[in-house]
């Protein structure tokens, strides 16, 4: 299992924009987790490498 820093950052910005606009937001936000296995590890690694380009 791994937390997803990309989703955490993306959702944080979405929530920050809502706060700036005066909208109500939840105090606790679930950004989820990723389940990493042998079957999907390469796909996840490729996704993260693409983000760093």
UniProtKB/TrEMBL annotation:
Record-linked InterPro entries: Peripla_BP_I
Domain of life: Bacteria
Protein name, entry field: Sugar ABC transporter substrate-binding protein
Organism the protein comes from: Ectobacillus funiculus
């Amino acid at each position: 299992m791994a937390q997803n820093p990309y989703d955490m950052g993306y959702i944080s910005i979405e929530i920050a924009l809502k706060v700036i606009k005066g909208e109500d937001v939840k105090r606790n936000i679930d950004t989820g987790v990723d389940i990493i296995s042998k079957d999907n590890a390469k796909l996840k690694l490729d996704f993260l490498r693409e983000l760093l380009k």
